[in-house]
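Internal tracking record. Fields below are filled automatically when a chain is submitted to the structure queue. Please do not edit lines marked as system-generated. If the sequence contains nonstandard residues, flag them in the REMARKS field before resubmitting.
Queue: standard
Priority: normal
Entity type: single polypeptide chain
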Amino acid sequence: MSDLVRRAEEWLAQDPDAETRAELQEILDSGDTAELQDRFGVKLEFGTAGLRGELGAGPNRMNRVTVMRAAAGLARRLGPGKHVVIGYDARYKSDLFARDSAAVLNGAGLRVSLMGHHWPTPVLAFAVGHLGADAGVMVTASHNPPRDNGYKVYWGDGAQIVPPLDEEISAAIDTVGRVDLLSLGDEWETLSDAAIVGPYLAAVSALPLGDARDLRVVYTPMHGVGGEVLLRAFTSAGFESPSVTEAQFAPDPDFPTVAFPNPEEPGAMDLALQLAEKVGADLVIANDPDADRCAVGVPTRDGGFRMLTGDEVGGLLGEYVIDRTSGPDRLVAASIVSSSLLGKIAKAHGVRHAETLTGFKWIVKAGDGLVYGYEEALGYSVGSDQGLPVRDKDGIGAALAVAAMAAQAKREGSTLLDLLDEQASRYGLHATAQLSVRVDDLSLITDAMDRLRSAPPLALGGRAVRSVDDLGTGVDGLPPTDGLRYRLDGDARVVVRPSGTEPKLKCYLEVVIPVGGDISAARTQATHDLDSLKSDLSTALAL
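SYSTEM-GENERATED OUTPUT FOLLOWS
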């Protein structure tokens, strides 16, 4: 207890934030050992996803001390004279964390360009390449709960960092002493809308979007920062401005209308879908709060609307981009947990295909000639023969491409659901689902992975397990990562891995069903088979 108190008092003495100082002082006065242990017994670890955690005092929380230490570590890894671009979303303290980072980096002798407003993450990723910067920082927790915030680092290629850069920055952070002794600067550049949002909009509007524009769209930014930029993107590309869910349009760090600000979460899309019914929309689009993800909803043939899965959109966009690019050495890529459909589409079109580890930091490094990449968690990067305008997932560029695809289908008397049926007929119905288990104790996830490694299941969902790949050893030329991949009879597949950003164990399921002329029967069979896989996998996980 005395050591925890000492560490807490040292923290208190250097914390520049009156709010977290008062919070920590109250904990010290109460003698709450458990709370001190939670905050000071461990720390947030800097990794390829940077930092992400709950706001509050202590090294195991997101706060000004944690952020200033991260900025100082980044400065030491980069060295004086380098150029860093900093962006931020509208979460609690994001703007403050961004300014603290600017002050620390500038004080260490680096050139800093700080965005003048809370803009989407893909704008920051674009800015790194557009300005020729050496690195970028985005203060965001994406679609995490309201009390969280985070700190993502991009390198000079415009992509998020990969090993060993994360270890090198983490080691540099560990050498940082008291933050109240750091030199702070105030001579940074403030980026205007014209300097960076304008060029970004020009870049995404120049994607191969065709000329069909007759489309009625409903849009929600989910209380995040995508709203104004997306509306401008649609206007710039020649679309009619979407109808917006007014209650969710203005940035609000409390995300008051949703339980979780993630379009994939139950209930999150209710307001947008209600508006879509009211106005007779052809398409529903949602961004998550930092607008790097894009969710898509469509009217059904029987009335009402349904959300498409990330893999359904991923397959549609993949073929759309392939059909509208012509480079001789084109490449498309998807993460190892995404559907195998993209590989079959690429093969049919004579285009190269790559599988990568989860995360766009890996997808955008799949190889030269990359014109499209996606991951099942609603992340897409749409490119052209000139490459990717954003070397990260971009929910706004993806929204434009989905709208263009839907408008073209409408012009031809078709719908996105019809396009899905056509793909299923050509390549087989690739149906996917997820099973996610959220835990309070991360050791439960470690124990579950250990059980699966020591006693792998022989069958899942009535299908024999044909092979087991331990992704921790590195497979198919991929770097090692904690995960297991099961290949089952009938081209079915299951991947199990711990989440890199949340306390979840995530399982990705896929079945491939021959259509044989009856798409309805194939979809019914796929639903049954996925349910059987979920049931058996739940038993095997024992969580």
